[in-house]
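step: validate -> pass
step: tokenize input -> pass
step: predict -> running
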Amino acid sequence: MLVRAPGVYRPQPDTWLLARAMTEAALPAGTRVLDACTGTGALAIHAARSGAASVTAVDLSRAAVAAAWLNSRLCGVRLELLCGDITRVVDGRTFDVIVANPPYVPSAGPVPGGRAARAWDAGRHGRSVLDPLCVMMPRLLATGGTALIVHSTLSGTATSLAQLRDGGLKATIVARTMIPFGPVLTRRIGWLRDRGLIRPGQRHEELVVIRADRTR
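step: predict -> pass
step: emit ->
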């Protein structure tokens, strides 16, 4: 069980799908890990328990960073916690492993409607965080490094793959799962249908984990 303050993204199926992908990837121990958009710190803690030499966890939300700090103490692991925009606070550094569960839900407005919505709303295409993250990934990954990114197919899987490959990374989908719409997408069914993002009657979305490797 993890402590979660109001407005902090709680671990959900995308969190656990990414955690399983981390385990199945058999990433080497002793690595430097970055957890982008850490939320409660669930994935950062999983990385630390899996043998990472160091884990840096970043979130834009101060409440999320506080929750991750408390959860790391309760779980007996040490994290480096940074509050701020992921594209700024770690720019210039490199990591052996990067995991990311960024906001990716398509939303009518460019700016989330409230503090809680920042945890999932990501602009009209669901890519306000995914785009800069995918573009900067080659700079963040050390040679031989691996990134694992989870998001919904509603946010454009092909776009993520293309951006990562354009940056010289080897990128492929390594995990998939179908889940029913949660409350946020259920409230937006009409808007999603009108934009052509879902079919009439569709009530499920597919989540994917993309693996990107820097081989040179």
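step: describe -> Strands lie at 32-36, 54-59, 80-83, 95-100, 141-152, 170-180, 204-213.
step: cleanup -> pass
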